[in-house]
UniProtKB/TrEMBL annotation:
PANTHER family tied to this protein: APICAL ENDOSOMAL GLYCOPROTEIN PRECURSOR, MAM DOMAIN-CONTAINING PROTEIN
InterPro entries: ConA-like_dom_sf, MAM_dom, MAM_domain-containing
Domain MAM: from-to ranges: 2-148
Name under which the protein is recorded: Epidermal growth factor-like protein 6
């Protein structure tokens, strides 16, 4: 299993150079470490910020479960999408607007074929709102299928 919370810095996170803005570290409310966030006011409507997690040593023909915490806080804050490297065209997960400010859990099954997935990209799209933020934290990759809720 790979544990990629941002406080420990174990994983290979890269900012995309071809996007419109960067994700930045933000302090957690309880003060224990930090998460990555995009404030609602950066950039212009429809601008994108991408944060890529480089994955190494994933075995072909295996399944993995990517579990992460996310938050879409604020009115009309935008969208959060997740892309896998070998399926660039369509997001494998997408969320727009949160019901509240709470952190939620996202889960994505990653099936490795002959080609292995070598990265996961978290993409934030700027919405119309001026307040709030999109946040991601506690990204964990476990081998095997995702657990049922």
């Amino acid at each position: 299993s790979v544990d990629c919370s941002f406080s420990r810095g174990v994983c290979d996170w890269k900012q995309d150079a071809d996007d419109d803005f960067d994700w930045n570290p933000a302090d957690r409310d309880r003060g224990d470490g930090y998460y990555m966030a995009v404030p609602a006011f950066v950039g212009h409507k429809k601008d994108m910020g991408r944060l890529k997690l480089l994955l190494t040593d994933l075995k072909p023909k295996s399944s993995y479960c990517l579990i992460f915490s996310y938050r879409l806080a604020g009115e009309r804050v935008g969208k959060l999408r997740v892309f896998l490297a070998n399926k660039k065209t369509a997001p494998v997960w997408e969320q727009n607007k949160g019901k509240d400010e709470r952190w939620r859990t996202g889960k994505i099954e990653i099936f490795q074929g002959a080609e292995t997935t070598n990265s996961v990209t978290f993409e934030s799209e700027r919405g119309k709102g001026k307040t709030g933020e999109i946040g991601v934290d506690n990204v964990v990759l476990n081998s095997g299928l995702c657990p049922e809720d």
